Amino acid sequence: MSILKIENLQKYYGSHHALKDINLEVKAKEVVVILGPSGCGKSTLLRCINGLEEIASGNIYVDNEKIDKDFKEWPRMRQKVGMVFQSYELFEHLSVEENILLGPMKVQKRKKDEVLKEAKIWLEKVGLLHKIHAYPRELSGGQKQRIAIVRSLCMNPELMLFDEVTAALDPEIVREVLEVMLNLAKEGMTMLIVTHEMGFAKAVADKIIFMDEGKIIEENDPKSFFENPKSERAKKFLNLFDYHK
């Protein structure tokens, strides 16, 4: 069953054609990784899926519910589609516990005890239960990013979007965030991931999408993509990372 289906999606910024006829499908429990050079439309695509950017035409289906350019019910839809950004987006004046509880209690009207129990389970899984009363200023970048992931997970989304979540992190703490995402994949979380971490992409993905200049150039399984990419553009891209020989 498809959790996400995109048909003929078009996006413009003024006269700039940012997304060109995007067609994509993500099945339940599937991990799809989007690769491509900077500025190719990867992050724009995620932002369109989560309603942070308006689309010009085409349709997005989340759990068979149609989203088009006139769709208005984004607060409800964002409960189904969680998104984690590279900039954490934590509230600095709230503790870790308060940051995590805010969405489920305010938006979903869930009881504090229920959400807190769930939050503690996730914090334990990501190794940060001991930081539940800390504030963002007291956390490292990697810890903030793991908290941001837990905050999204506590909304119980059907699909998680990750937009270059390690891009702002020091290299030595990238691994701790990637390990959380690898574990989510093992647990069956449906994910659409934008990343420049090639080794991680190869390890976690069920399917690789390669984009350039607003278009999907190639779609393949990880082994085929990294060992024998179909397009010359993908070969050139992988050569930059010493991945394609």
TrEMBL record:
Belongs to the ABC transporter superfamily. Residues 4-238 form the ABC transporter domain. Keywords: ATP-binding, Nucleotide-binding, Transport. PANTHER family: AMINO ACID IMPORT ATP-BINDING PROTEIN, PHOSPHONATES IMPORT ATP-BINDING PROTEIN PHNC. Most probably involved, with PEB1, in a binding-protein-dependent transport system for an amino acid. Probably responsible for energy coupling to the transport system. This is Probable ABC transporter ATP-binding protein PEB1C. PROSITE patterns: ABC_TRANSPORTER_1 (PS00211), ABC_TRANSPORTER_2 (PS50893). GO terms for molecular function: ABC-type amino acid transporter activity; ATP binding; ATP hydrolysis activity. Transmembrane segments: none annotated. Pfam families: ABC_tran. InterPro entries: AAA+_ATPase (IPR003593), ABC_ATPase_HisP-typ (IPR030679), ABC_transporter-like_ATP-bd (IPR003439), ABC_transporter-like_CS (IPR017871), MetN_ABC_transporter-like (IPR050086), P-loop_NTPase (IPR027417). CDD domains: ABC_HisP_GlnQ.
